[in-house]
Amino acid sequence: MPTYSTTARQLTYSAVSLSEAITAGDWEKHYLGQEKVAEFFERGYISNIRVLTEEQCDRILKDYEHFIDPSKRHPGHAMLYEHHSNQSGDSSNVLMHGLGQWRLTRLFHDVVFLPAISVPSSQLLDQDKLRPVRLWHDQMFAKPARHGGVVAWHQDYSYWTRTKPMMHLTVHITT
Ligand SMILES: O=C(O)CCC(=O)C(=O)O
What is the pTM of this model? Predict the structure, then answer.
C-alpha cells in the first residue's frame, strides 16, 4: 500500500511496479534502432513508439478515473501540482489538465520510470552518447471520447530554453 508522508509530501511504495516483469537484462530490448535515432536528430521528433501494452493501458485507465471523476477523487489529490477539471471553456466538453499525477498512484509513478521510455530518452538527449535521465515534470491532458475539449492554440517555446545546451525532451503518450 502507498503511504503519504505529510512532511516530505512524497509518495512511497513498498515494492512491485507496472514494469515488474522487466529485469536489468531486458534494458537492451528497448534501444531504438540507429534509423530511428537518426530520424530524431534530423526531424526533431519521432512517433509511433509503443511504450505500454494493452494490458498496462487497461490498468492505468483505472487510476485515470481518480483525476477525471470527482466522485473517485484520490486521497492524495492535494499533492497534485495543478489540477483543472475543465480548461475547455465549454461546459458541454471536458479538457482536464493536471500536473503531478506521478506522485499519487503507483501506475502513474511507474510510467515515468518505464525502460520503454527511459532507455530511448537516454539515447535521444545527446547525439554523441547515452545520458542519464531524470524527470522534470509530468502533465496530463484528458479529452474523454465524444465530449473531449481542445487545447487552445499556444506556443511552448519557453520550454526549449530550460536547459542550455538543450538536454531535455518531451514524451507524449497517447492511449
Ligand atoms: O496534447 C495537447 O493537446 C496539448 C499538449 C501541450 O500543450 C503540451 O504538451 O504542452
Answer: 0.84
